[in-house]
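Hi team,

Below is the intake form for Probable beta-glucosidase G from Penicillium nordicum. Please confirm the fields before the structure is written into the shared record.

FORM ID: S-0412
PROTEIN: Probable beta-glucosidase G
ORGANISM: Penicillium nordicum
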Amino acid sequence: MWPFANAIRAQASAAMCSYNRVNGSYACQNSKLLNGLLKEELGFQGYVMTDWSGLHSGVASAQAGTDMDQPGYIEPMTTLLNQTRLSSYFGGNITLAVRNGTLPESRLDDMIKRIMTPYYFLRQDQDFPATDPAMAYYNTQFSSSNYSMDSFVFGEKSRDVRQDHGGQIRRHATESTVMLKNTNNTLPLKAPTSIAIFGSDAAPNTQGPFIRGPSEIGTLAIGGGSGNGRFTYLVSPLEALKARAAQDNTLVQFWLNNAIIKDANVESLWGATAPEACLVFLKSRATERLDREGLIVDQHGDAVVESVANKCSNTIVVTHSGGMNIMPWADHPNVTGILVAHYPGQESGHSIVDILYGAKSPSGKLPYTVPLNASSVNTAPTTNITTSGVDDWQSWYSEGLEIDYRYYNTHKIPVQYEFGVGLSYTNFSMASLRAKPTYPEVRISSQPEALATRPGGNPALWDVLFEAQVTLQNTGSTSGATVAQLYISFPDEVSAPSLQLRGFEKTYLSPGEGYTATFPLMRRDLSYWNITQQMWLIPKGDFVLRAGFSSLDLQNSVVFRPVEE
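The structure came back. Fields below:
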């Protein structure tokens, strides 16, 4: 609930219902979710639109809280219903439903008000930027490939709003790169005389500035489907590494065909000049309409690492992926460095070179856990999407709150790399965690005050009751950034994960510089959902706050009791 509450409190004007069923009802036809939780409990005043072709009914979905059907037609384009060809569950059928009394006119009015309210709330009727003139073409033509083209081919040129986007993308990509392993400080590279680059993911893209689908050769810098777009340019790791290596007169050798590398004796590839460092680039593609079927990297990537690491004593692995990958080679003694670069965008090569050569210290933190193997995951990927059983698309949410690190920590399951971890080229210390009440003279009640609902829910749940602080210091010799993380443990009487993240703050520090990170703790942060009373309550007993640099690297703790017995 809380991520949705955050978005609504931040004045999000639209919400999207998804494809799955919840408690037996499709999300776009689930009144408890849309009317009860979203619009009533969380006070959402905008409109609910379907994910594309996520609607399965007309009146039932409208009554359940769906306000807009996208893209508006039933797949296939027309469906035979009662001997009448219809193209939409909504549209003219909503008009018919109002006329025959199956849908109250007041509900239709509500749908219209919710759709139009954001238009005026966002002042789109007052000096709002005009639609890009190139979009006029899409009013008459549209195909799945159109967003890969610049519409000026057919009409007016697209408006250029990029400004310094290239520089921003490079900074974002550099700061989000996570270093998981750096044996014997193999990184940053120190003017090596020779390097070898392996893997199809290092190569320039072979399909132009728009990546239409999976390709064997070419770096992966962006997701597929609606997450895709047309690059202004794309700097591959190979191109950037060759340019940087030239500054040191470094010999660069490279092999880009994974099918060859995985079975090759790589020593025979580089001949007499053994590289001082071997860089292996891996990828795994993620896109809508084609869910990942597993957690390994694509195109024999694991075998490529083994082939290289078995012969190269200084193997550095870089992954480009939209999510988590298992890493069966992580503990290989010759794998000395691991960098998780995710999807870095058009400055892919430059951003990874910034890290590899030490122009920037890595500061990204892992936003998920890397398990030891796929069988350790408590929620396996869903791959069977063509069945016709009664439980099709039903999301059971049987994991409850035990998602990712909250599952592994609670059940003490060993992992490869924990949530929140990320190494740096410098060192940081953390000390003096403390927590103090915001209003010491006020006695805190277990139950929140019943206030009128506002966007985000009961305003009382957003009251800051405590403030936690912890002191950080850069104890190394290099400037860098770290992320202080605050976790909470509820009293034993409450059925909850053993550890839950309650705050994080990234800070940049010069050598010797210190900083105090501050974390506000709202009532909701200290509350659990009481099923019997059907409300958020702060339990009695002792809470434990823990601060650290990851979900396992917890360096400070403090015990406090919000509600007295």
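SUMMARY LINE: DSSP finds twelve helices and 24 strands in the chain.

Thanks, M.
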